[in-house]
Amino acid sequence: MRDLLDRLPYARFLGLTTRTEGEVLTVTMPFHARLIGNPILPALHGGSTAALLELTAVAQVALLYPRLHLPRPINVTVAYLRSGRPVDVHARARISKAGRRVAHVLAEAWQDDEAQPIASLTAHFLVAENTL
Predict the structure, then answer these.
(1) 3-class DSSP state of 84
(2) pTM for the complete prediction?
(3) Is the Cβ–Cβ distance between 61 and 105 less than 8 Å?
(4) Residue 70: half-sphere exposure toward Cβ, Cα within 13 Å
(5) Which pLDDT score is estimated for 57?
(6) Nearest to 130 by CA among 57, 67, 62, 58
(7) Cα separation, 6 vs 36, whole angstroms
């Protein structure tokens, strides 16, 4: 999975790293000052958190469907649950349903406690090979 994220410029910009345990992929976004969206709090920028979640979901789908070049998002919805503090963020995605053409993916991002997510994602990805 590292090579997939290495090919994506924004994943490189965010400094994403991966760890795989079987078919479970965990992606980490190390904290960097450029990721701060609100310097008064300070809080992570919502766009970087959303990108982490979407790229984690893409990587998880690519792990299940290795023949795809890059899974194409159909729709992505992000819910911001807590303010992201200036520390590392971890994310994990799971495919709740995968058909011949579409995969439904759920992802969560957390910081210190996995039971307290800071954001969640629901997305559908196109997994059919012979589409536009």
Answers:
(1) coil
(2) 0.92
(3) yes
(4) 11
(5) 96
(6) 67
(7) 23
d(CA 49, CA 29): 9
Looking at 82-125, list the stretches that DSSP marks H as alpha helix, in order from N- to C-terminal side.
none
Q: Structural domain boundaries of the chain?
A: 2-126
State how far Cα 74 lies from the chain centre. Answer: 15
DSSP letters for 10-54: HHHHHT-EEEEETTEEEEEE---GGGEEETTTTEE-HHHHHHHHH
In this predicted structure, what is the pLDDT of residue 1?
A: 56
Dist CA 107 CA 56 (whole Å): 7
Q: Which CATH number fits domain 2-126: 3.10.129.10, 3.40.190.10, 3.50.50.60, 3.40.630.30?
A: 3.10.129.10
Q: Which of left, alpha, beta for 105 (phi over 0: left; psi -120 to 50: alpha)?
A: beta
Those residues of the chain that have pLDDT short of 70 are 1-2, 129-132
**If you count them, how many residues does the chain have?**
132
Say which amino acid occupies 106: L
Residue for token pair 């058909």? 99
- Look up residue 41 and give its two tokens: 């709090």
